[in-house]
Amino acid sequence: MAQVVERPERYVGGGVPRKEDPELITGQAKYIDDINVQGMLWMAFVRSPFAHARINGVDAARANDMPGVVAVYSGADLADDWAGGLPCAWPIAGRSFPEPTTEDPRMPNHWPVAKDKACFAGDPVAVVVADSRAHAKDAAELVDVDYEPLDAVVDPERALDEGAPQIHEDLDSNEAYVWSMNNGDVDKVFSEAALVVKERYRHPRLIPNAMEPRGVLVVPAPAQEEYVLYSATQVPHILRTTLAMSLGIPESKLRVIAPDVGGGFGSKLNVYSEEAVGLALARKLNAPVKWIEERSENYLATIHGRGVIQDMEVAATEEGKILGVRVKLLADMGAYLQLVTPGIPILGAFLYHGVYDVQAYSFTCQSVFTNLTPTDAYRGAGRPEATYAIERIVDALARRVGRDPVEIRRMNFIAPFDQPREVASGLQFDSGNYGASLDKALDMVGYDLLRKDQAERRQRGDAKQLGIGLSTYIEMCGLAPSQVLAALKYGAGGWDAATIRCLPTGKVTVVTGTSPHGQGHVTSWSQIAADALGVPIEDVEVLHGDTAISPLGMDTYGSRSLSVGGIALHFAAEKIRDKVKKIAAHELEVSEEDLEWTDGKFQVRGAPDKAKTVADAAFSAWTAHSLPEGMEPGLEATFVFDPPNFTFPSGAHICAVEVDTETGLVDIVKYVAVDDCGNQINPVIVAGQVHGGIAQGIAEALYEEAVFDENGTLTTSHMGYYRVPSAAELPSFDIDSTVTPSSTNPMGVKGIGEAGTIAAPPAVVNAVIDALQPLGVNHIDMPVTPERVFSTIAEAKGGRQ
Amino acid sequence: MIPAPFDYEVAESAEHAVELLGQHDDAKLLAGGHSLLPLMKLRLASPSVLIDIGRVSDLSYVRDAGDRIAIGALTCYEDAHFDETLKSSCPIVAHAAGEVGDPQVRNRGTIGGSVAHGDPASDIPTIMLALNAEFVVRGPTGERTIAAADFFKGVFEVDLAPQEILTEMRVPKTSSGWSYLKFHHRAQDWATVGVAVVLGDGSNNASVALTSMGERPLRAQGVEEALAAGEDPASAARRAAEGTNPVSDPMGSSEYRRQIAPVLTRRALEEALSR
Amino acid sequence: MNGARLEAEVEPRQLLVYFLRDNLNLTGTTVGCDTTSCGACTILVDGKSVKSCTMLAVQADGTEVTTIEGMAKDGELHPLQRAFHDNHALQCGYCTPGMIMAAAGLIQRGGDMSEDDIRLGLEGNLCRCTGYHNIVKAIQQAAGEMKSSATV
Ligand SMILES: Cc1cc2nc3c(=O)[nH]c(=O)nc-3n(C[C@H](O)[C@H](O)[C@H](O)COP(=O)(O)OP(=O)(O)OC[C@H]3O[C@@H](n4cnc5c(N)ncnc54)[C@H](O)[C@@H]3O)c2cc1C
Ligand code: FES
Ligand code: FES
Asked: What is the rounded CA–CA span in Å between residue A45 and residue A520?
C-alpha cells in the first residue's frame, strides 16, 4: 500500500492506511489500565459464588485487618449512595405491535452492590478498597459473607414453571415481557399453505471477550465537587448522563473519558456496577479509585450475548415459494435488565423474513429472567438471531421441496430496488440487490466444482464429507429515527453529532460524538473531512471519546457510527463550505453564483487562478478583519443528524466445510463473502470489519458457548475452557463486495461493523448439515462441536435403523 | 491474577533443591512454572515457599546414553521438539513436545515439570508410558530409578516424596513406527483424547497409551493384547476404551472420549505402521 | 531490558507483566486473561517468546528482555510493526504487541513461514477484532522481508 504524499483527488473510497496505528504498534497507546494517578486506590469486588442466595450478613473484620486496606463496603453500607439503581434505557412492556401498550414495563431494582439477595453467580456483594491491586485482592478473599443459597432458575424454559423460584421480589413473576407484531393475514396464510416447515433453533449464550477486559478510574476534584471518570467503554456520553442520574451528581460536574479501548462488541455498551461504585467511592473517599477486571471475572460480571430459543416456521407453496413467516422467541434476560437488555430481541423483530418476498409476518418474543449473568448487546444483537433462523429454515425448505439452496433463494428474493420499499415486517428497506451478491459469491467459491467434489466423496463414502452452506443475509444499522425509537420505547435518540473547527493555520479539527474502539473512525472521518474541505488528510485531527471535548454524541454500537455520525460530519462540512463560499465571494468580489467548488477550493468560474481555499477562509474568519456584513467570526460548524430511516446492508456468504464423520471435527476449507454495505469510505477498513465479523460468526457456529451447570455455576469459567478461536482454527477469507448505495443518506453508506457476525453462523451450520445429508442429519445446534456432531450422527444412524 | 504472597529461594543444583525442600514446609519446586503459576494466579495453589530450579542449567539436556536417551528434567518442550538426537533416535518425544500448549508455553514448560505434575491430560506422561521410560529421582538419601508404569498414581499424584526432585527421564531409542495423535478442538487446547503408539519389532507388538482417558495416563491393554493375538489394527483398536474411566469436562464428556478413543487408536496404529 | 541494564528489587509474587507495566511503566505489554490463554502479554526473553503473565519478575533475573517498546530501533519501525500497519493487521490494537512479539519469536526460531506455519505458530495468541486474516498476511510479509534482508 503506497504512502499518501500528495493530496489525491479523493480520499474517500481509497484504502488509506490507518492514522490510529502508530501508537498502537509501538506500545504507546493508553488503555484504561495504562492510566495511573497519584494516590490512587484500588477496588476489588467480592462476588456471589451462588446463582441465587439471600445475603444474611457481610463480615469485613478479617479483610479490614489486611495490609493496605482502606475500607470494605457491603451493599447495605452503600444503600444511601444511590439516587437510583443501574439504568435500563430500553424498558419494554408487553405489547402487541402496533397497538399501544397497556402495561408498564417490569423492571426489577438493580443496585450496584446487591443488598439482600444475590441474583447470579458474579453479582457483587461487597467491595474492598486498598492501596494496591494486590492488597485489594488479598483482602477480598477474606470478606466473610453469610449466604443462604436459594433454588435458582437456570433454564429459561423453566423460568415460568409453577413453583419456579421467584427471582425478583419486587415483581410478580419471572416474565419480563411478551411483545408481538403481526402483518398480513398470518393464520390464513399458514392454514392454507401447501406446506409448512417448522424448526426449533437455539442460540447459546456467548461471552463477548473483547480482548481488553473492562476497567474504570475515577478521579475526583473534591473542592469543585467534580469527577473525571475514565472507563473502557463504548458509550462515554450515555455513561455520563446515566451515572449522573444514578449517583445524583450534576451531569455538568461529571466528565467521562473513553481512553483507547481494546474492543467492545457490545460488552462495553453498558452502564455497569463497577463504574457506579467507582464514582460513589471516589466521592465518599475523596480519592482516585481504580478497578481493572480480570478475565475470569469478566466471564461472570460482563454481559453475555444471545441466549434465545426460536420456534421458526415458514409457510410455502409446493415449489418452495415462501408465503409467510411466523416465529416465537424465548429470550433469556439473565438476572437483571442492563442498559438495553430487553430491546435486543426486538432489534431482530423485523428481520425474520430476511431478503425474501413474503406476504404475512408474525413475530412474538417472550422474555424471562433467570439467575444467570444478564444478557445484552453482543455484536449483531438481535440480527444474527433473525438471520440464523431464516437462513436455516430456507435450507430446510429447500430440502423439503428437493431444490438446491441457491435455487430456493433466487426464487424468493425481493427483486432489486434502489428506493425505499416496504417489506412484510413493515420496515422500509433502503435499497438492495440480493441476487447480485449471491451470483458473485457462487462464482468466487466455485460452487459447481464443490458440488462435484461433494458428490464424489458421497459416492466413495469417505470419512471426511464435504458440505456447502449459504447465507444471504440482511441487517439493519443506525438505530433511528428518534421518533421510531420513541415508539419502540428506547430511552434515547438515534441522532449523532459532528463538529468541524477550521483553525487559523489551515488545520482542521473534527469532533465526533461516536466513540470508536478499533473501527478506525479517525481515519475514515479524516477521509470524509479532507475530501469535503479540500485539505490534506494529515491536516485533519479527529477527537472523540471525551465528554468535555465532544459534549454531543450517542457513541458507537449497532454499526451506527458511519451511517449516523459520519453523515453528521458530511453535513457539518456542507455548513463549513457554505460559509467559506460567502467569505470567498466577499473577498474575490464576485457573487456566490460565480463560484464553483473544484479541486478542493472555490474558484471563480472561468478564472481558476482566482480561488479561495478553506484554509484561506479559516484565516480570514479568524482575523475577522474583513468579513461580510453581519457574519460571525470563526469557521466552525456543528451538525446533528437524525436519520430518516435505518440502513440495510446485505450480502451473501458461502462456507465449505469438511466434516470428519468419525470424530465429529469440522474444518472450514473455504469461506467466501460478498457484502453490500453501500458506498465504502475505506475498503481496507471495510475488509477488516468483515474478516473480524466472520471470525466471530464462525466462533459462534463452531466453538463458543457459556455453559452453566444445574446450579447456575459457569463451567466454561475461563479462557482455557471458553473456546475463542485462534488463527490456527480459522481460514483466510475470500471477500469481495457489491455496491448498492443506501437511499437513507447522502453518502449512500450502510454500515459493516456487524455484517460478518450476522451472516456467518447460518452459512457454517448449513454447510455442516449439508455435509451430513447422506447420514440423514437435518438439524444440529450451535456450537457445532465435534462432540455434538458425533452424537448427532449417532442419533441419526440410530433413528434410521 | 495475582498469586498469594510467598517466599522465593533459588536452587543452585539438584542437591541444593533437595536441601531447600528439607528446610521448608509447604514448599514447591518451580520449574517452567506453566502448571504451577496458573494455579497460583487463580489462588488454587498458594505454597508458602517457591524453590526455583529453573536456573539449574545442568538439568537441561538431551544426551545419547547408549541404548537409551537421557533427558534432563528441565529441558523445555521447545528444545526437545527441535533436538536432533531426539528427532533421530526417539522422534515421538520430539513430536509430542511440539504438540503441548502453544509456542510460548513450550518455551517455558519443562518435560520434567510435566511428568512431575501428573496431570492426566498432559501429553508427555502418555509418551513416557508408551515408551516404558525410566525416571531418575533424587532425594535426601540419594538417587532412585522408577519405571513410568509405576510412577503415575492418580490425578496430580505421582510417586515423588515431598523432598524429592525428578532429575532425568530415560527413554529407549526407537527405530520402528510410532504415532501420537492428539485430538483437540482448538490447537491450544489440551487433549480431549491423545493416543500414543510405539511399535515393537513386529506389527503385533505395539505399546499403546492414552491421554485424558482416566485418572492417569493409561496403557490400552486391550488393544495391545488384541494386536499380540494377531488381530488387525482396525479391530484391535475397537478395544481402546476398555478399562478407561475418563472425566467429563468442557473438553468433552466421558462418553464422547470413550467413543472416539477407538477411532483415534485405529488412525494412530495406521500412521505408526506407515512410518 | 530492551537493550539497557536494569536492576530492581521486586516482591517474589510480582508477575513479570506487572513489573514491566507498573514498575517500569512499559505499558505496551497488555493483559488479556488470567489463564495464560490469550498471548496479549507476550514478550521475548533471551530471544524466545514467552507469556509475561506466567513468569515471575524474579525469574527474569539475568535475562535479556525485549518488549514492544524495544522493537523500533533508532526511530525505524521493526519490519513487523511496519507490516502490521501496511496490512491493516490491527483494529483496537490490544492484542497487537503480543502478536508482534509472538511473530518475532517465530521468525527468530527459524523454520518455514507458510500460512499454515504462521497460523499454528499463533495458536497461543487471541485477537477478537481482525479474524487474523491480515495478521497472517502481515507476518508473511515481514518474514519475507527479514529473510531477504538477512541474506544480503
Ligand atoms: C496455556 C497452557 C496450555 C498448556 N497446554 C498443555 C498441553 O496441551 N499439554 C500438556 O501436556 N501440558 C500443557 N500445559 C502444561 C505445561 O505443559 C506445563 O508446563 C507442564 O505441565 C509443567 O511443567 P513446568 O515446567 O511448567 O512445571 P511447573 O509449573 O514449574 O511445576 C509443576 C509441578 O511439578 C513440580 N515439579 C516441577 N519440576 C519438578 C521436578 N523436576 N521434580 C519434582 N517436581 C517438579 C512443581 O513443584 C509443581 O508442583 C499447558 C500449560 C499452559 C499454561
Ligand atoms: S495475559 Fe498472558 S496469556 Fe493472557
Ligand atoms: S486488534 Fe483488537 S484484539 Fe486484536
From this structure: 34
